[in-house]
Amino acid sequence: MSQKKVDAYKEYKKNKEQILKREKRMKKIEFGVIVAICCLFVGWFGYSVYESATQKANETTEAPVAAEVDMNAYGDYVNSLQATFSA
Questions:
Q1: Alpha carbon 85 to chain centroid, angstroms
Q2: What is the pTM of this model?
Q3: Looking at residue 59, what DSSP letter applies?
Q4: C-alpha of 67 from chain center
Q5: Domains of the chain, residue spans
Q6: Residues 6 or more apart whose Cβ sits within 8 Å of residue 19
Q7: Which of 5, 68, 76, 86 makes an SS bond possible with 1, Cβ 3.0 to 4.6 Å?
């Protein structure tokens, strides 16, 4: 082994306890973040299901109201096009 590797190994052995504590702390933080994201997803999913269920329950079953549309302008336009192209 080169001297550089030996020095790195000695430094690792000297700081091994701190390094392991840091790694454990990072694993706990990562686990906490993953759990928080999962909880948020489950909460959002539950809220969405609840909202869609209550929305359907609140909707009335009345027939839609028909709207009357004046088609005279459209008919005049189509007739003018037919007159233009048939001439």
A1: 52
A2: 0.52
A3: S
A4: 37
A5: 1-61
A6: 12
A7: 5
Q: Taking the CB of residue 62, how many other CB atoms lie within 10 A of it? A: 6
Q: How confident is the model at residue 34 (pLDDT cuts 50, 70, 90)?
A: very high
User: What's the pLDDT tens digit per position in 48-75?
Assistant: 999 888 887 666 566 667 888 889 998 8
Residue 37 identity? I
Tokens for 65, please give them.
Answer: 């109201």
For residue 18, report the phi and psi dihedrals to the nearest 5 degrees: -65, -40
Q: How far is CA 39 from the centre of its chain?
A: 14
**Lowest pLDDT segment from 36-45, 62-71, 75-84:** 62-71
Scanning the chain, the segments in alpha helix (DSSP H) are: 3-14, 16-58, 72-86
Q: What are phi and psi of 32, to 5 degrees?
A: -60, -40
Compute the distance between CA of residue 85 and CA of residue 79 in angstroms, rounded to an integer: 10
